[in-house]
Design a protein that fits this description.
Blueprint (H helix, E strand, L loop, with lengths): L1 H4 L4 E14 L5 E14 L2 E13 L2 E8 L6 E8 L7 E12 L13 E11 L7 E13 L2 E14 L4 E7 L3 E8 L5 H10 L18 E8 L3 H6 L10 E8 L6
Antiparallel strand pairs: 1-2, 2-3, 3-4, 4-5, 5-6, 6-7, 7-8, 8-9, 9-10, 10-11, 11-12, 12-13
Length: about 260
């Protein structure tokens, strides 16, 4: 693959794949996909024994995949409904059992990097201004030669209500954060940039934004523990007590 695709991080590949299905005159598709990857070279590491089975029918999809490589023990299950509509729903379950990242050459600067996590995610609608989502990570453990970072539970929630009201939150032993208010992801970055450009206009140029936009957002971040930053990934950050940031922004009033 490195020669075919002119990509040096790729290498030898050996696999079997089969797809079977039917298509009706109305465009309805029912199909199955079976894949067995015997070897796949990436970043100078040969991955072995990757298996995947997928079923697509009536605008729904179900995928099961497993990596049985000794350094990448990973299981993945994805289900989705109304995939081609304006309101798709996707459910993902994943389990990573001691993935050795330094051996895989992803983060070689952290010797012995070992990841364990159980992940569950639900997403309704892929449009950020309409999305409702939930992410749960259980038994998250990252081990390096410098230390061990462990979290019993990490939860991320995203809500979108009528009228543009949104609420995002992160809850874990390390950090608690929330952002809520009436705003749009399509206009907020530009509006905030324009507000900041008044103070440092030499570095941040003004950009046109929808004059009807009304971005009103509150932000709260609480950092409970910094051992992960200073020990596990060796960042020179030491905070002896909890640290908190609270912020508010409204583009109509140009208020930060």
């Amino acid at each position: 693959l490195a020669q075919l695709l002119a990509n040096p991080v790729l290498g030898l590949t050996s696999l079997n794949a089969a797809i079977k299905g039917t298509m009706s005159g109305s465009g309805s598709i029912a199909a199955t996909l079976n894949v067995e990857v015997h070897r796949f070279d990436f970043n100078s590491y040969p991955y072995h024994d990757i298996f995947a089975d997928a079923l697509y029918m009536n605008d729904s999809i179900h995928l099961q995949a497993e990596v049985r490589d000794s350094l990448v023990p990973l299981r993945l299950e994805v289900s989705g409904n109304h995939i081609t509509t304006d309101n798709p729903y996707v459910l993902l379950n994943a389990e990573a059992r001691h993935i050795l990242f330094d051996t895989l050459r992803f983060i070689p600067q952290y010797e012995g990097a070992d990841l364990y996590a159980i992940i569950r995610a639900e997403v309704l609608n892929f449009d950020l201004d309409k999305m409702k989502a939930r992410l749960d990570v259980d038994s998250l453990q990252l081990k390096t030669d410098r230390g061990v970072f462990y979290q019993d539970s990490v939860r991320v929630l995203m809500q979108n209500e009528e009228g543009g009201y949104k609420a995002l939150s992160i809850n874990s032993q390390l950090v608690e954060a929330a952002a809520y208010g009436t705003f749009s992801f399509s206009t907020l970055p530009t509006a905030l940039t324009n507000s900041l450009s008044q103070y440092v206009n030499a570095f941040i140029p003004y950009q046109e934004v929808d004059s009807a936009s009304n971005d009103d957002i509150n932000l709260f971040v609480l950092l409970r523990n910094t051992e992960f930053l200073s020990n596990t990934i060796s960042l020179p950050v030491v905070i002896p007590d909890s640290a908190m940031v609270s912020a508010y922004y409204n583009n109509r009033n140009n208020n930060i």
